[in-house]
Amino acid sequence: MGTLSILIPAYNWDCSQLISDLHAQGEALGIEYEIIVADDHSGNDDTLQAISRTAQALERCRLIALGQNIGRSAIRNLLADNAVYDKLLFMDCDAEVCSDTFLKDYLTAAAKADVVCGSERHPDKLPCPGVELRWKYERKADTRRSAGHRSRTPYARFSSFAFLISRELFQSIRFDTSFIGYGYEDVVFGMELERHGVSVLHIDNPLFKPEADDNATFLAKTEESMRTLLAHKELIGGGSSLLTHYSRIERLHLTFLLGMLSPFMPLIRRNLLGHHPSLVLFSLYKLLYINSIKS
Question: What percent of the chain has pLDDT over 90?
Fold first, then answer.
């Protein structure tokens, strides 16, 4: 099955259980592997110490604790630079392994394509009050996360949440470090995969995300991603359906309609921050937010 470097960027999240579960699967497979966690200067000493204790207790595991925050793209590049094995398996820290064959399934699929993408799934029921917006958004997205659905547009559906790639190929592409804020670094990476003619295979091998951002945090992240989108709009172009929709509105000279609706943004925010957020209003809010920045 070859060798494997499991790479986990972390920020304000105790991923000790994830590390332990992956370690157990690696040992069971009997392969040469390593687990590297890079903490992007979380500032949470308790979390960092918990990860450190786990990494020290398990063979083949190590923690890189950064002295300053370098961002979502740069930290993934740093992890790849520190990896020693041929295959790189990236995954986000805020997830749980939900299959006893999680690593085996990735390694088996590796022979079929240059890049193998898994996915994520979320709780069927609301985890707790106050996270309704993210939970409703992700649950709707889960209906389009099957391997079959993602395979229809394999590059557009690339996600950095969990993917396997050879070290050599990754180093020839890498994440664009001009993306420092939240959002769209994986969109551009997927576009680069397409530009280089890289084969991408989507598989049904999800990680489980048990928790969700609270409504205010998720809305703030969404707004940050909109700012990122506009800052890199020339590079992203048609890679964003949201930007495509807004560009169509501009071409039709209908942005004045968004301007007429902009006074209602505080009311829409109130809905999105409440216990019964509307995903239709969420989509409208994104367009209004982009229009407010551009105007």
Answer: 93
CA 171 → CA 3, 191, 294, distances in Å?
17, 16, 35
What would the pLDDT profile of 124-156 be if each residue is shown by its tens digit?
999 999 999 999 999 999 999 999 999 999 999
| Predicted local distance difference test score (pLDDT) of residue 28 | 96
CA–CA dist 68, 40 (Å, integer): 7
Q: pTM higher than 0.70, yes or no?
A: yes
